[in-house]
Amino acid sequence: MPSEFRRFYDRGDMPIAVQHGIQNKIYWKVAVGQLDYHHYLPIFFEGIREKIDPYRFLAVQGVCDMLQ
User: Fold this and answer.
1) What burial class does residue 32 get, using C-beta atoms within 10 Å of its C-beta: 0-12 exposed, 13-18 middle, 19+ buried?
2) pLDDT 10s digit of each residue in the chain, 68 long?
3) Whole-model pTM?
4) How far apart are CA 27 and CA 10, in angstroms?
5) Of 9, 17, 20, 68, which residue is most buried, by most CB within 10 angstroms?
């Protein structure tokens, strides 16, 4: 069963995208500090259980970015 993170990402409801390059990075569509952490942080944490990229990559990197 897909995570809530995956469903939101597939619908285009997440403020992120993959920035392709030599090493892929996360691209934030809004400043991380402007996010509603009460809404997004639990969704990103749930996404860590995904086994397929880009979902897992984005969820892990998103959590790291928000916790910094």
Assistant:
1) middle
2) 889 999 999 999 999 999 999 988 999 999 999 999 999 999 999 999 999 999 999 999 999 999 99
3) 0.91
4) 16
5) 9
